[in-house]
Amino acid sequence: MIRRSFLALSGLLLAGPVAAQQPPLKVALIYSKTGPLEAYARQTEAGFMLGLEYATKGTMEVDGRKIQVILKDDQFKPDLAKAALEQAYGDDKVDIAVGTTGSAGALAMLPVAEEYKKLLIVEPAVADQITGEKWNRYIFRTGRNSTQDALASAATLKDENISIATLAQDYAFGKDGVAAVKAALAAVGSKAKVVHEEYAPQATTDFTASAQRIFDALKDKPGRKVVVVVWAGAHPLPKLMDLKPERFGIEMAPGGNLLPVMAGWKQFPGLEGAIYYYWGFPKNPVNDWLVTEYKKKNNGVPPDFFVAGGMSAAIALVEAVKKAKSTDSEKLIAAMEGMSFDTPKGTMTFRKEDHQALQEMYHWRMKKDAPDNVDLLELVRVIPASEMTLPIKNKR
């Protein structure tokens, strides 16, 4: 009897380690929760958590490991973004990091990922340099880059002789954006030419002087005259329109933006541009789920621009760990290079050469009678990834 009890107890002791729970899968989400792009960051967080829920079917675990998300606010400051990632890898021992909101912050983070030999999924920072000359092999990006934005915009401006002036913010995002616009026009064979570049500080609120220089550069040009705006945060379009560019036959091409920003453009029916995501455009099960679930949690308001991006990053992370069956960096890199995964925008693919996610974009037109502040846009056409020939800019 004693022997049987001992054997039973031994069996329990042996079974204990097998049944023990796996260590958590630690993920750091670094974002600018305070600062000028707070709205972007909050959307990224909301989308990221929904993406984990979707990708894990509500279990919030991968291969028996509970997902632990550690949130870090870099306050839109590059030095804090760098420090947050160092802390995440060094002190928190995270397996993978995701971030950040601003391009300058993301660029500051890239060498940290290389130093620690840990993966960083960049979302939603846009600057080309992130997967270009500043890139390293530990960097993957689900967010689009400036050239993808520019190629999409160029696809809407390629059929005529057009004179273009650009207005952009005077930092990495804006300068990369304008360079990408010029390269994209050439890449799609557009007859359009950039005849003036205008840069303004990020905090600019009075655009009178900038607009005057733009109007002077365009007003005597033959054919169509278009201002391409590359801007993050509070958008200058309404203030530019107040200066009546139409008196010179000048059109605006503002790109895409957040729903609250674009709601202010309802007064300009017929306005056109290209956009990364708009909730009503993609037709696929992932987006259907996102729209339904986000509306449930947000009083019927649909998901916005960066919600979709955050969700895409989370899905990519979960699918990568499943495919690699590990969080070892080398195994993850091998699994993720060339990996395709479903997102609210449809299928994305991490290009092997620079780990940039290839993805579709959308040509939109402002509805003539938009019924409210979220049902704003009509789809002109989907711009497929195959139509946007994205140059490889890194030095791999």
UniProtKB/TrEMBL annotation:
Q: Which CDD domains match?
A: PBP1_SBP-like (cd06328)
Q: Where is the signal peptide?
A: 1-20
Record carries keyword Signal: yes
Keyword Hydrolase attached:
no
Q: Which ranges carry the Leucine-binding protein domain?
A: 24-369
**Which keywords accompany this UniProt record?**
Amino-acid transport, Signal, Transport
Question: What Pfam families does the database record attribute to this sequence?
Answer: Peripla_BP_6
Entry's family note: Belongs to the leucine-binding protein family.
What is this protein's name? Answer: Substrate-binding domain-containing protein
What organism, scientifically named, is this protein from?
Reyranella aquatilis
